[in-house]
Backbone:
């Protein structure tokens, strides 16, 4: 699930806060100041690394991002927050990370901050000794929290917006069936991705799922960045003689703006 692990750098902006006069002695802090880079239009899983001097439990993190940037959490906790990768316990003097997905709009060309608010429970006593070590000096379980701001770098996309993986189809003479065309997105998401066949050789007819006029990705209307998906087309070759044919493709999608591209597929009727 995790496409990217955040870089662990120097100490970030960290603001511990607790109710009452108790001072947080856990030493919980973020190691990450800057995540992996994203490009405009990308959906990416990012992570922030944490450490602490004492063991804490019941870890929960929520993320706030600028307007237009969408935050999604792992579904393992219901989708309203994220926890640590190993469990909801951060063991003292070790590291673990929280993961979240950001969907960055094409209009976001500059790096931006995200704010992570983490809550956790400490069972360590006032003397700094902890129950799991047999040295706690009270029965209190203290609910604590900390807030950290990290930077998400935004860099220009490189490479093609998509590639066509399926360039050849082979069908038996007289066939009439659906076939799959595979495409892979570049770094960014492509919304409303569609494919239709252009001018057809005499004797070939086509159809699309649901009697539509175009085909769409099997996984949904978008071709998500750095992923592959397939689009189905029905090829009725009952009137087509054996041979090799070049069939044009018309490909439409929305990146920063609606776009149209062309492609071809080589059809072999055997």
Residues:
């Amino acid at each position: 699930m995790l496409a990217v692990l955040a870089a662990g750098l120097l100490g970030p902006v960290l603001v511990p806060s607790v109710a009452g006069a108790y001072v947080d002695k856990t030493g919980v802090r973020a190691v990450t100041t800057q995540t992996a880079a994203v490009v405009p239009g990308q959906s990416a899983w990012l992570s922030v690394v944490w450490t602490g001097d004492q063991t804490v439990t019941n870890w929960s993190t929520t993320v706030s991002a600028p307007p237009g940037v969408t935050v999604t959490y792992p579904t393992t906790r219901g989708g309203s927050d994220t926890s640590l990768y190993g469990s909801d316990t951060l063991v003292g003097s070790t590291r673990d990370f929280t993961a979240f997905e950001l969907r960055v709009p094409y209009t976001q060309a500059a790096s931006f901050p995200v704010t992570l608010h983490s809550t956790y429970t400490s069972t360590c006593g006032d003397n700094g000794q902890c129950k799991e070590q047999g040295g706690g000096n009270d029965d209190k379980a203290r609910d604590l929290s900390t807030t950290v701001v990290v930077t998400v770098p935004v860099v220009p996309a490189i490479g093609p917006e998509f590639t066509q993986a399926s360039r050849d189809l082979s069908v038996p003479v007289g066939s009439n069936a659906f076939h799959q065309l595979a495409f892979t997105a570049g770094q960014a998401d492509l919304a409303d991705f569609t494919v239709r066949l252009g001018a057809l050789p005499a004797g070939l007819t086509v159809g699309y799922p649901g009697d539509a006029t175009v085909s769409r990705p099997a996984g949904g209307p978008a071709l998500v960045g750095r992923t592959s998906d397939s689009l189905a087309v029905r090829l009725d070759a009952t009137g087509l003689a054996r041979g090799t044919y070049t069939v044009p493709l018309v490909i439409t999608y929305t990146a920063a703006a609606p776009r149209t591209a062309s492609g071809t597929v080589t059809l072999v009727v055997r």
In short: The chain has a mean pLDDT of 91. Residues 114 and 199 are 49 Å apart (CA to CA). The chain has two domains: 13-152, 162-269. The longest strand covers residues 243-254.
